[in-house]
Amino acid sequence: MRAIALIILIFLNSNNMHWHFSVNRSLMSSNPSLNNHFINDVDNYVLTLIREDIQNRLDANDDYNDSLELKNADRKKLKVVYRFSDIINSSKWFDGIVPHINASENKHLYNANLLNRDTIPVFSMECFNTIGLTGGLDDSKTDDPKDHYKWFMFNENRSAKSNKPGSRGRNGVGKHTYNMVSEIGTFFILSHRSTDEQTILTGKSVFKCHTIEGKDYEPHGFFRDDELDKVCTLNEEVIADYKKKFNLDRNNGDCGTSISIPFYDKKISFDEVRYSILESYMSEIFADNLDITIYGKNDKKVEINKQTVMGIVEGLGPDERNLSLKKRYKFYDEIENNPKGSIENFVLKETTNLREISENNFEDEDFKKAVKSLNNEKICNFEIPLTVKSKGSVKETPSYFNVYLKKDFDIVGKDETYIRAGLTISGEKSITKNRIRSLVIIEKNEKLSDLLGDAENIAHTKWSAKNDNFKQANYKNGDGIITFVRRAPDRLLRLLESVEDKVIEGAASDIFSIPKKKPKPSPNPDPEPDPVPEINKPKFRDSKLLEPYGFRIIKNPDFDKEVTEMRIKLGYEQEGGNWRKHDPVDFDLRKSAPIKIDLIGAEVEDKNINEIKFNISDQDFEIRIHGFDKNRDVRLAYLKV
What's CA 317's distance to the chain center, in Å? Predict the structure, then answer.
């Protein structure tokens, strides 16, 4: 009887929805700071919004297919609908929120006057064939990873996917992007759950801790039904009205989640959303895992999927950003749809030295073959094995990644892309030479993907060993593995080009075996050219020490003047190649360990954290500096004295 009474109550009370903020009863107050993480990581937060949204929906699509035990060709692909629309304003959707926006702590950040308008611009983001926000609907705490609703609504900077192998999201802050791009810090959530076929409606606001009429309030507010002990409503009448008013595509029974952002930031436009999808999810589109439709205003529409994507990319405008995107898609399309024999495949041996890739990593004649293929502008695919192990674990997991390289004299600069688990990691670069195309792919189900996922920053644009998730996982040689993967394209290229002329010259002599004729002497020889001015020779010569890892420095035998002093700077290779930005945690030369300095014919005059000045007393001096981490690249520079 109680259940029947509750159902009757739900249907009779269709206007019990309003925004609720809890009174802060704690001595401690904490303002959300997650916006700052995104602002620091990326300039274009439209790109961040789309990347985070699709990434989380792809993970939810995996959960959906796994729950139905669908595999391979039977799996249902993710469908996403983005829609720009203007809806008629109604106070029923914003009841109780205005005083909180107008609180002195919030009013300089958010604009409650927008709610006086007759129409509201709304950006809706819907997905289909996903599991929905499953689990309990109350506001109690949970650590159960299957409580998707509670993790989405109440957990920030915590993720249920952090320890889940193969997941794309790791940091638990992607959901914060929705309120970040609303000018009133607010968004609505409608979700049809695959587990119990219930449809729920709620909303979330994220402000600052604020005070109204002497009461202190929490920063988070929720759109909920006062008559229920749930942070949402199940009222079918309210939900049907909401779906109609907010122009949603979701029909009854369509599993998935719809997010609607009122008063979205003006930077969010049809063209920016389209670009962000193409920029971030090239791999998933080509794999036919994504089907996305964008509806703009004035009947503007585009459908992005495997069949349409190349036509869409080719039709983009001629600005630099789009040209770069076109180059990237052209290369990926060549790899995906290559004619037989157009790609040369090489499986390398696992390296024992994370600081290099050498000829010894190639099988038999593969090295010479790779040199020839690269020079002949063929696509070369290098499968590179790695072993991944968390410290404290007895299990070592074999893994691998692929590097595709191609010389292309039709491009002016260089084109390089890193993809982890289908997501383009746009901030990673390594190649220093032009007219090269490079693609690095780390497959989703590889242990290496989990390691790099733990190392990704919040915006998923770069890898860093300083990420908290990465530190907690405590991978063996983890920072060395990051650098190895990042620099693999450049190291391969340098290795292959270092012997290219010699190998190709030998190959060419086999083909073009016509003997060369000696040129006849000219009756009127040209006058002797002026002597080439002498080039300044370096004073010092250095070489790498492998064990223990470091440098050996001597005087350059070709430098005929006396040297009396030398000043050097040392540092590990950092993200983006900026090795001079030294972190004292790495090493401090003022300490006696771990870096050692052995001297013959020289002495240390002065040193700081990563610089040393030497006085040289013997021209046959030798300086050895060693004890660096052998899994990282260490650099040396000579400074003016």
Answer: 25
Q: Positive or negative, the Cα torsion across 123, 129, 130, 132?
A: positive
Rounded to whole angstroms, the Cα distance separating 121 from 453 reads 35
C-alpha gyration radius of the chain: 30
Exposure letters 214-230 (e unless 16+ CB within 10 A, then b): eeebbbbbbbbbeebeb
The residue written with tokens 């895992």 in the block is: 289
CB–CB of 277/302 below 8 Å?
no
User: Six-digit token pair at 606?
Assistant: 């002065």
Of 90-94, 101-105, 591-595, 625-629, the poorest mean pLDDT is in 591-595
d(CA 615, CA 447): 50
Phi, psi angle pair for 543, to nearest 5°? -145, 155
Task: Please tell me the distance from the alpha carbon of residue 489 to that of residue 569, in angstroms, as a whole number.
Answer: 27
pLDDT band at 611 (very low <50, low <70, confident <90, very high): very high
User: What secondary structure does DSSP assign to 404-416, as a single string?
Assistant: EEEE-TT-SSEEE
pLDDT at 537: 78
pLDDT at site 96: 95
Are 270 and 300 spatial neighbours (Cβ–Cβ below 8 Å)? yes
The per-type count for the chain, helices as H runs and strands as E runs, is 16, 24
Q: For 24-44, what is the mean pLDDT?
A: 56
Write the pLDDT tens digit of every residue in 177-225: 899 899 999 999 999 999 999 999 999 999 999 999 999 999 999 999 9
For residue 55, count other CB atoms closer than 10 A to its CB. Answer: 22
| Residues linked to residue 200 through DSSP beta bridges, in sequence order | 191
The phi and psi torsions of 31 (rounded to 5 degrees) equal -85, 140
Task: Quote the strand ranges of 179-298, DSSP E.
Answer: 186-192, 199-206, 210-212, 215-225, 256-262, 290-295
Q: How far is CA 388 from CA 397, 446, 461, 474, in A?
A: 5, 10, 22, 11
Distance of alpha carbon 120 from alpha carbon 124, whole angstroms: 12
pLDDT tens for 51-62 read 999 999 999 999
Give dist(CA 553, CA 55) in Å, integer. 50
> CA 191 to CA 199: how far, in whole Å?
6
Strand duo 436-442 + 290-295: pairing: unpaired
Pairwise CA distance, residues 321 & 275, whole Å: 9
Task: Collect all residues with Cβ–Cβ distance below 8 Å to 207 and sequence separation of at least 6.
Answer: 100, 101, 103, 105, 106, 109, 110, 185, 219, 220, 221
Tokens read off for 627: 């004890």
CB contact at 8 A, 254 and 192: yes
- Whether the full predicted model's pTM is greater than 0.85, yes or no, is no
pLDDT digits (tens, 9 = 90+) for 525-572: 555 555 544 456 789 988 887 777 888 899 988 888 899 999 999 988
Cα–Cα dist 238/258, whole Å: 15
Query: d(Cα 143, Cα 145) in Å, to the nearest integer?
Result: 6
Question: Average pLDDT in the 146-155 region?
Answer: 87
Residue 521 has pLDDT above 60, yes or no: no
Are the C-beta atoms of 51 and 459 separated by less than 8 Å? yes
Residue 440 near residue 417 (C-beta atoms within 8 A): yes
